[in-house]
């Protein structure tokens, strides 16, 4: 066939969409504006570059919705999740990766695929001809964003996604900090000691909150609105909601015992997660921030164990654009007003690396099937992929539509299972068993290779 599928954006969603379509026999062109056109958050021109956390979150496919999404992506031969496992770092029950080798491997796999080529030019308009997938993610360029806004006839929706700082391991005081995953989670010793913990007494915590609230913050440009996604709130915004908010959030002390002072329970704990395979970098978990750089170094050095910390990267904040998918997209992720254009990834209103890649996976398969004249069944709603698609294309209330992580609240109830917290374990297992069966059936109906989970 001579027709090509054009994918705008080489992040998680675009990379996954390209991989899926190319493996179905479709020729793919990835349009990636980096490195010619830079963004605030990206550091390289690699495809699949991670710009925020290095975690794909839980890998538990029986009791966690994102872990189920991992499982489904592995079964479909997803490039993102399989490469993440190739570059896995110890992180308790989570799937954390060595970010630079991860992106380098993604780039190598895609650029060496016989059906994939890459064009390093910026796309500034919505195309009128051909088959396209827009997977530009949270940092959609202003020109393309304006073109999308002109087509939809509505104001762009946006929130601000904040980046947590990264600390050089050698600068952390291990006479104060200790290694332990919360509740000692993990099957190996490395998993059980995947996090560095910095304890705080009550006076230290109170002084930290005071400094956090008083610190200089980034100012927003005129006309911008700071509508944060609740799953990625800057720590100072959380602190503004109440002095104890952080202590019941990212700084909660439960499930941890101070190895340096086991007799005294910390009032609060700051956790750092390993950020690379060498173990030379740790990121401060949940500490995304919009403080100015000078203020960040002063405030974060108040954390016990980080008094002499050296930062490989300070926190930052960027605007994240997403469309009102419930009004604009059909259940095949096609634009209703322009069916030759699909959207995938974070711009559709899903949140997180895994969710973004998963929307790329289904968009790539859907586009390729349409181009090949194949009758691809709808993604079953009771799978993790299907639950997300249903939410963003009609399950959510359009008037209040906001970015969403995958969660079991998006799944249809199962009859005969106990509700509430006490029935949660059996209920979640029921959801994941049903989803795996339905996802397996969807893959088999396509007569395409299925990977071993």
Automatic annotation (TrEMBL):
Coiled coil: none annotated. Its main location: cytoplasm. It comes from Pseudoprimorskyibacter insulae. This is Methylenetetrahydrofolate--tRNA-(uracil-5-)-methyltransferase TrmFO. InterPro entries: FAD/NAD-bd_sf (IPR036188), MnmG-rel (IPR002218), MnmG-rel_CS (IPR020595), MnmG_N (IPR040131), TrmFO (IPR004417). It is found in: Cytoplasm. Its EC number is 2.1.1.74. The keyword Methyltransferase applies. GO terms for biological process: tRNA methylation; tRNA wobble uridine modification. One of its GO terms (cellular component) is cytosol. PANTHER family: GLUCOSE INHIBITED DIVISION PROTEIN A, METHYLENETETRAHYDROFOLATE--TRNA-(URACIL-5-)-METHYLTRANSFERASE TRMFO.
């Amino acid at each position: 066939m001579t027709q090509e599928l054009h994918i705008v954006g080489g992040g998680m969603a675009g990379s996954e969409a390209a991989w899926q379509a190319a493996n179905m026999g479709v020729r793919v062109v990835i349009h990636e504006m980096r490195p010619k056109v830079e963004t605030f958050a990206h550091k390289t021109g690699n495809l699949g570059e991670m710009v925020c956390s290095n975690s794909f979150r839980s890998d538990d496919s029986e009791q966690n919705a994102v872990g189920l999404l991992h499982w489904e992506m592995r079964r479909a031969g997803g490039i993102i999740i399989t490469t993440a496992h190739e570059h896995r770092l110890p992180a308790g029950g989570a799937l954390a990766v060595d970010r630079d080798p991860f992106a380098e491997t993604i780039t190598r796999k895609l650029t060496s695929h016989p059906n994939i080529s890459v064009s390093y030019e910026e796309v500034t308009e919505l195309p009128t001809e051909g088959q396209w997938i827009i997977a530009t993610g949270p940092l959609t360029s202003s020109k393309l964003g304006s073109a999308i806004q002109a087509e939809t006839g509505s104001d762009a929706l946006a929130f601000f996604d904040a980046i947590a700082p990264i600390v050089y391991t050698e600068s952390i005081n291990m006479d104060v900090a200790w290694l332990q995953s919360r509740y000692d989670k993990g099957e190996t010793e490395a998993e059980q000691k995947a996090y560095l913990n910095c304890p705080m007494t009550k006076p230290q915590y109170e002084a930290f909150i005071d400094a956090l609230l008083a610190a200089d913050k980034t100012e927003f440009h005129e006309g911008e609105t700071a509508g944060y996604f609740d799953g990625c709130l800057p720590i100072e915004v959380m602190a503004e909601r109440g002095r104890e908010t952080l202590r019941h959030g990212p700084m909660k002390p439960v499930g941890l015992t101070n190895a340096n002072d086991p007799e005294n329970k910390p009032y609060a704990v700051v956790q750092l997660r390993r950020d690379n395979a060498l173990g030379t970098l740790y990121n401060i978990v949940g500490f995304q921030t919009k403080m100015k750089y000078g203020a960040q170094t002063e405030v974060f050095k108040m954390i016990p164990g980080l008094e002499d910390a050296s930062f490989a990267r300070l926190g930052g904040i960027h605007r994240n654009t997403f469309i009102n998918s419930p009004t604009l997209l059909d259940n095949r992720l096609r634009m209703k007003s322009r069916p030759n254009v699909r959207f995938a990834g974070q711009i559709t209103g899903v949140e997180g690396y895994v969710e973004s890649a998963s929307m790329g996976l289904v968009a790539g398969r859907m586009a390729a099937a349409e181009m090949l004249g194949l009758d691809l069944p709808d993604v079953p709603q009771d799978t993790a992929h299907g639950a997300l698609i249903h939410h963003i294309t009609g399950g959510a209330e359009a008037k209040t539509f906001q970015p969403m992580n995958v969660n079991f609240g998006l799944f249809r109830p199962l009859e005969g299972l106990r509700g509430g917290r006490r029935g949660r374990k059996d209920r979640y297992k029921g959801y994941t068993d049903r989803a795996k069966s339905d996802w397996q059936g969807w893959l088999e109906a396509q007569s395409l290779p299925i990977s071993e989970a």
